[in-house]
# Entry
Amino acid sequence: MNNDIFIKELRKLYTDGHVIPFIGAGLSIPFKVPGWGDLIRNCAIDTGIENVDGRSLLGTLDLNLERYDYWEAVRIIKKYLNRSEEDIQEYIVDKIKTESVKSIDGSWHNYSDLGTMDFDIFLTTNYDHLLSDYLNSNYVPVKLQDINSNMQKLLHEKGSKRIFHLHGHISDSSSIVISEEKYMELYNDNKYKTLFSLFAGVKTFLFIGFSFKDVFIQNIIKDNKEFFKSKHYIVLESPTTEEVSWLKKNYNLETISYDKNNSSHHEEIRKILNSICIKSDAENNRDNIVDIFHNNKKK
# Structure
């Protein structure tokens, strides 16, 4: 199907306050935030993967990373390099903090775009706080399972701009989900499943910053398949017809595609976001009336 149809559907959902941007690692790339594969590989190298009892296991590690088998790569670090979960979590936090660029021109990334738009809730698998840096919010980002608010109020709150991290964040290294054990612990948590099902059932997810081969997005969709009964959307760069069909058939995910040739990821994503968040003439007229009312009141 044509992108225009999905954009039109999302524009209506956005106007009604029903869209939740679901943010992946791709949006943090302009800030030089290391990806999951790089974090795991660097951790292994820095802790001795090239000399394990006189042998290098880097080739074995790389083979697993090339297959996007992050769980097995982490197991190798634990087993052969005697690193604990806590050691790896602390390494990840330190790497993200030291290697990330603190700020770049707003035209070179999409967090600045999201900060100007009227989304009320954001979900993310990212560990960094870049999204929070560009949102004008009075709320501190928290892990999804730490929500203690009234859910009905939260779901219908306007202008709140709340951020919920699914896999932890760098403010709390113990919250970082990087191993299969931590992942399973999270996704088997009843509170987490209840909260995720509420968001997925009442709102519409717009996945941004993921690739089709991203193991985390595949696992999230697969392990929460029961909650994906309603339609959700994903933005992907040049997916194949087979990939688009597979996502629709298995998870009811509609794909909005873009081509970055002669352009860039952030420019094409910006076009999509702007197309979704454009105001109708009726909305602009309503806003103008409100502005006139307030200006007259001040006089």
The longest helix spans residues 281-298. The beta strands are 19-23, 121-124, 142-143, 162-165, 204-208, 232-237, 253-258.
